[in-house]
TrEMBL record:
All copies of domain DNA2/NAM7 helicase helicase, residue ranges: 314-397, 951-990
Any Pfam family: DUF4011
Organism: Gemmatirosa kalamazoonensis
Keywords noted in UniProt: Plasmid
Record-given protein name: DNA2/NAM7 helicase-like C-terminal domain-containing protein
Domain DNA2/NAM7 helicase-like C-terminal: 1014-1211
Single GO MF annotation: helicase activity
Length: 1275
């Protein structure tokens, strides 16, 4: 809007809303009254003025008299539709001339007793429902009717009620008759008729005098005569004495007049402009919550001790409250059971604490009552003015104002001790919560996540993981787990890998040709090894050689054979003697002496003749040495003996050898030494050591040396291989024929060659099976040949194994291969080991976790809970004290002070109070000062509040998904800030109630014709208003009660609390099989209706027994899938209540949560401990299942299903005869129909089990310690 120029879209929108509210056509029952068979009771032979005097002026109740039963007990025919008892034309009369029956308390009717009672009961039920659902009393006693024609030439006479007296029906029990009483509302001239006459004919009906100013002497005939005079001038028009009790609805007309009066303020209001043009500031058009709210640290910036929270609030609720506190308009999406009412309670409390006025608007009385009850429990009820339906009567309002005014004079002591301690305790718990929920490392997981992961695999086998944790990403971890899962799947057909014929094969693929080659090689190898084992056995027997167990044993056998082949022969005693395990010293010494003697002899013979070796020379040597010493040694030549010795020695010299006597003396000494060695050798026992090879000095010393080496070599083999005596005996004889051993060697070499080829084809590692026993190799080869077809499976397993080997879990492969860890458990075992190690590492890094003690933590949690509750009480007391002080202060100021005289006069009166419109209009400031929170319906907003300017700081709508824009916009303009609360996935606005007022007939689906519309909630969601969704679901005591809706409609986005009783027959979903249940068409299943009624009676008796024992009884509601089934169940219950009066206490409407029977069009907003659901739809008598599920087939059927399935707190019992699985999914063309069939019709009679969401591990969200410490009593 720019300057004074109005956006034409706004004018068009206001005009459209007005058209939607105003109905001056013949569809309007108030302009074209046609009686219905059940929901109309015509009063006959009575005078309207006398009824007005007794019922309105004297405020006396009246009762009904039925027509006599037909004679002879024949059943009376029910009156046909649109057939009336004719009424006389209005004619003034003298009251004194009337019969007594026209002035008594009895209203005459033309209905027989049973039909009368049935009609009155139906009227009572529908009127009560309209009050509960719309905050509107629709039950009126019409006094007089204008009979008229639309055109002078028309012969069709229409009727319009003239004076409408708001009434109510009451009875003490099902057996008692109904009484008719006037309500606190004033009688009114038919507003639709008055508006139609004004618009169409420019006729103004006479005004009805103020009832409060009349006494019982007033005669209504005066006014009736004035009306008759006004209309008599028109041909075909007349006023007649018709008196009917029927249902009329005028709230749309009242709201139309409100829009008409306030068209300009509506078009100029900021919120209406945004709604229509979708054009606000950039900041207005956000997705979700504004940034400043979304980023808030709630514990630091919005703690309960500083924000006047009076009831519990979770993080999603707190963020919504914070957004409103910061001045944002807000749409709050509240799925079932997520605490919408408690959020509204805290919103109102915060606004009152900030000195703001609040207008809370709810069409459904249950929604308003829940919030009001919470405010009363928080001590704030005295500041709330209830102006909804039955609460909007002047006596109740004046009494409420007087009580609040009196209380405002009472002081309240507020103590703030808990608020000081709470932050420290919360900080301690938050530190722990942060430690548990803060992400760590590349994995991006929290300890809470780790505990969740461990909970899933806590029973997995224990293994050790020593690999990395810090650098592990979620992708790598998931890949490892997947690889292990693949390994488990690949290993399933394999069994224990270590026992598989193809074990240790490494090729990832085997072609048919490769398998053929492997089979041939395996068979060849097995045959060769079998022959080898046989030949080795023969050698063992014939030669006494060691057994051959491995291919290496063949090499040992060859080594033994080589020694035997080189045998020089030796005594058996030598070969068997341990002394020869190493060369004996005496043998080596003897050989050494022999070698030395031979060397000495050869050296001597090189210079001396052999004769010199034949004698001793010791004396000659001694003499020569003596004479050669001293200074006179040169004189020795003179000595004859010297010369004789020289002559001999010279003869011993080889020709050409010259030497001195001294030199020869040394040489001759060596001759003596040689002779001594010869004697020693001759005396030595060499034969015992060397056997025949010993020949004394003549022995072959090289041969003896080789002999020693051979014997020690043989002894080494004998010790190593424990050679049998037979082998030693053969060796003692000399060289052994070892040709068979060499043949065995060649056979073994050929087998090794085949094995090497087989290794290459199979993919075994190098030297694989090389050291294995020959029998094992042969067995493996035979198994491989036998199971060659298993190769591809092993290749798949090997591929999976290689993938694991490249990942984090390589160290587990050994246990998997050996079978110690079943492959199917490998993934779980790895996850357990990994998360344990990861969690251990993280705990050591976080002091809050490292020092965690369950006992201390539980004490701190208990302290927090106590402080939290105390803070709420302190907040309540502080707020009450502030508000009471504010009441007295404001009543002394300005408009409030000027309005107090009028208010005091009304407070002083016992009766005859001024109309509420007048009181609230003239003393609105005073009333607002006493009660800054007004709780109203859209109708009472239009009735009692001026709309020229926004007079409330905050307007809050509840159950806004059911409010059409035209109904809500009048309340929107009364405020400066807006909060719209509802669920776009629940019921949309519908004209169901208007349709049900005028139509007793149900089409094939059992529902009156109705239309859905767009709601104020959805419109503001599309207008760029910030939005917040409540996510914590508290209502359901068992997860199964919300699981279906959570998954099907909320994408699993709701956080639920697990039930402490998971296997119970008293909580959660149950199924009651209805034997013989048959769908009769038009929304009716009488067998099921009777079964549900019987179940209700049984439940009622149980609860009455609980009450008698002093236990809290459970509340009960019944939900049906259409209107006709609802009426059938109500009729069945009526019969049972009449038959058993002891049941009446259970059906008391004054109970905190009274019993109800509702259908899916009006059950939204109601909840009970237990809900029975009558499915109705089943196979018909001909056995066919017709794919028509009533309203669920409609476009918004899924929303209706969402509502009806989420009404129970503790248990829900589905009553039906199952359709079984023959229901074709292909033929369910709408989502709602599919949901209904899957949820209701495919369960067996054996029992009902809830659909549980698999995985995700339980999700957790928190913003403060409230998530771990606050009790879950919110809802």
């Amino acid at each position: 809007m720019t300057g004074t120029t109005q956006d034409p879209r706004l004018a068009a929108a206001v005009a459209g809303w007005q058209r939607a509210l105003l109905d001056l056509t013949k569809r309007n029952r108030a302009l074209n009254f046609r009686p219905t068979r059940v929901s109309t009771v015509a009063v006959v032979d009575e005078q309207p003025a006398e009824i007005f005097r007794r019922l309105v002026l004297r405020e006396q109740p009246m009762r009904f008299a039925a027509a006599p039963e037909p004679p002879n007990g024949s059943p009376a025919e029910p009156p046909a539709d649109d057939v009336d008892v004719p009424a006389p034309e209005f004619t003034p009369y003298d009251p004194a001339t009337l019969d007594a029956r026209q002035t008594d308390e009895v209203l005459q009717t033309a209905l027989v007793p049973e039909a009368l009672d049935h009609s009155l009961r139906r009227l009572d039920e529908q009127a009560r429902l309209a009050i509960e659902e719309q905050g509107v009393n629709t039950l009126f006693l019409a006094l007089g009717m204008v009979h008229y024609t639309e055109a002078e030439a028309s012969d069709v006479t229409l009727r319009a009620p003239l004076l409408l007296v708001p009434v109510e029906l009451t009875r003490r029990s099902a057996r008692a008759g109904y009484q008719l009483r006037v309500t606190d509302d004033d009688p009114l001239v038919n507003p639709a008729l008055a508006e139609w006459l004004r618009r169409t004919h420019d006729v103004a009906l006479p005004e009805l005098p103020d009832v409060e100013a009349l006494d019982e002497t007033y005669d209504l005939q005066t006014w009736l005569a004035a009306v008759a005079a006004t209309i008599d001038a028109r041909d075909g028009w007349s006023l007649k004495n018709d008196v009917v009790l029927a249902l009329f609805s005028f709230q749309k007309f009242v709201m139309y007049k409100d829009l008409e009066r306030n068209a300009a303020p509506i078009a100029s209001h900021r919120l209406v402009t945004q709604l229509v043009t979708r054009a606000g500031t950039t900041d207005d058009h956000v997705v979700g919550l504004p940034d400043d709210v979304r980023r808030m640290d709630l514990d630091a910036e919005f703690p309960p001790e500083r924000t006047y929270q009076v009831v519990d609030a979770d993080s999603s609720q707190l963020r919504a409250i914070a957004a409103v506190a910061r001045g944002h308009d807000l749409v709050v999406e509240g799925p079932p059971g997520t605490g919408k009412s408690q959020t509204i309670t805290n919103l109102i409390a915060r606004a009152l604490a900030a000195g703001q006025s609040v207008l809370f608007v709810a069409e459904k009385m249950a929604a308003l009552s829940v919030v009001h009850s919470r405010l009363v429990a928080a001590g704030l009820g005295e500041f709330c003015l209830e102006l909804h339906s039955t609460k909007a009567n002047k006596r109740a309002v004046i009494r409420s104002l007087g009580a609040a005014l009196d209380r405002s004079l009472e002081s309240v002591t507020a103590v703030a001790g808990a608020a000081q301690r709470l932050p420290a305790v919360r900080a301690t718990l938050d530190e722990y919560v942060d430690a548990v929920h803060t992400l760590h490392g590349a994995l991006g997981a929290t300890p809470f996540d780790a505990y969740g992961e461990l909970a899933v695999v806590r029973d997995a086998p224990r293994v050790t993981y020593t690999g990395p944790i810090e650098g592990v990403s979620r992708a790598l971890l998931d890949a490892t787990v997947r690889d292990l899962a693949d390994l488990g799947a690949a290993a399933a057909p394999i069994g224990v890998p270590a026992e598989h014929p193809w074990r240790d094969a490494s090729r990832p693929l085997y072609t048919d040709d490769a398998l053929h080659t492997i089979a041939a090689l395996a068979r060849d190898l097995a045959a060769r090894l079998d022959r080898l084992v046989y030949d080795a056995g023969v050698l063992e027997t014939s030669l006494g050689l060691p057994p051959v167990r491995t291919l290496a044993d063949v090499d040992a056998l060859v080594a033994i054979a080589d020694v035997l082949r080189r045998s020089p022969g030796a005594p058996v005693a030598v070969l068997a003697s341990d002394r020869w395990n190493a060369a004996p010293p005496e043998a080596t010494s003897l050989v050494a002496r022999g070698r030395a003697a031979v060397a000495l002899r050869e050296r001597l013979l090189a210079r001396l003749a052999p004769e010199a070796l034949e004698r001793d020379h010791a004396e000659d040597v001694s003499y020569v040495r003596h004479r050669s010493e001293g200074i006179l040694s040169f004189l020795a030549v003179l000595d004859g003996r010297w010369r004789g010795i020289r002559a001999r020695w010279t003869q011993y010299r080889r020709p050409g050898v010259a030497m001195s006597m001294a030199e020869q003396a040394e040489l001759m000494a060596d001759v003596d030494r040689l002779r001594a060695e010869r004697s020693a050798l001759a005396a030595a026992d060499g034969a015992s050591l060397f056997g025949a090879a010993w020949r004394g000095e003549a022995s072959d010393w090289d041969a003896l040396d080789a002999y020693v080496r051979w014997v020690t070599e043989l002894r080494a083999l004998a010790v190593r291989h424990a050679l049998a005596p037979r082998v030693l005996e053969l060796a003692a004889r000399g060289p052994v024929d070892v040709g068979a051993v060499l043949a065995l060697r060649d056979a073994a070499r050929d087998a090794v060659t085949v094995l090497e080829r087989l290794r290459a084809e199979v993919g075994w590692p190098a030297d694989y099976l090389g050291a294995a026993p020959i029998a094992e190799i042969a067995g493996r080869a035979a198994k491989l040949a036998e199971h060659v077809a298993l190769g591809p499976r092993w290749a798949a397993y090997e591929t999976a194994r290689r993938a694991v080997e490249r990942g984090l879990a390589a160290e587990l492969l050994g246990e998997v291969t050996s079978g110690a860890l079943p492959a199917r458990d490998a993934a779980a075992a790895f996850r357990r080991a990994f998360w344990l190690r990861w969690l251990t590492a993280v705990v050591t890094l976080r002091p809050a976790l490292e020092r965690f003690s369950t006992l201390t933590h539980e004490q701190r949690v208990a302290e927090f809970r106590d402080l939290d509750r105390r803070v709420f009480r302190e907040n309540q007391a502080t707020l009450v004290a502030q508000l009471r002080e504010r009441v007295q202060q404001r009543l002394r100021e300005g408009e409030a002070a000027r309005g107090m005289p009028l208010l005091r006069r009304e407070l002083a009166r016992q009766r005859g109070h001024a109309p509420l419109r007048k009181t609230l209009g003239e003393a609105t400031a005073a009333v607002r000062a006493i009660k800054p929170c007004w709780m109203m319906s859209p109708l009472t907003v239009a009735q009692y509040l001026p709309g020229e300017l926004p007079t409330f700081d905050l307007v809050i709508f509840d159950e806004a998904s059911q409010l059409p824009v035209e109904d809500a916009v009048g309340a929107v303009i009364r405020g400066k800030q807006l909060v719209v609360v509802g669920d776009p996935k629940q019921l949309p606005p519908t004209n169901f109630f208007a349709a049900s007022l005028v139509d007793d007939h149900e089409p094939a689906d059992g529902m009156p014709a109705y239309e859905d519309a767009e709601s104020i909630l959805e419109e503001y969601m599309g207008a760029g208003v910030p939005m917040s969704r409540l996510r914590w679901h508290y209502r359901s005591a068992h997860e199964s009660l919300i699981a279906f809706s959570n998954v099907q409609f909320y994408e699993g986005d709701l956080y639920t609390f697990p039930s402490v009783e998971t296997d119970t027959e008293t909580l959660g979903l149950r199924f009651q099989f209805v034997e013989g249940g048959t769908y009769e068409g038009k929304g009716l299943n009488m067998v099921e209706a009777r079964a549900v009624a019987d179940a209700v009676v049984a439940f009622a008796r149980d609860q009455l027994a609980r009450s008698a024992r002093g236990e809290r009884p459970l509340s009960l509601g019944v939900g049906t899938f259409n209107l006709r089934q609802q009426l059938a169940i109500q009729d069945e219950l009526e019969q049972r209540r009449r038959a058993d009066p002891s049941l009446e206490p259970f059906f008391d409407r004054g109970a905190a949560e009274p019993f109800f029977v509702k259908n899916l069009e009006n059950i939204q907003g109601d909840e009970r401990d237990v809900v029975f659901l009558s499915v109705t739809y089943a196979r018909s008598a001909d056995g066919r299942l017709r794919y028509n599920f009533g309203p669920l087939n409609g476009d918004n059927g899924w929303r209706r299903l969402n509502v009806i399935t989420t009404r129970a707190r503790a248990a829900a019992c589905w009553c039906s005869r199952p359709c079984t699985a023959t229901t074709s999914t292909r033929r369910r063309r709408r989502a709602a129909r599919s949901c209904c069939a899957s949820s209701c019709c495919t369960r067996s009679a054996a029992g009902w089990r809830a659909s549980r969401r698999a995985a995700p591990p339980t999700r957790s969200r928190r913003s403060s310690a409230t998530c771990c410490a606050r009790s879950s009593t919110v809802g």
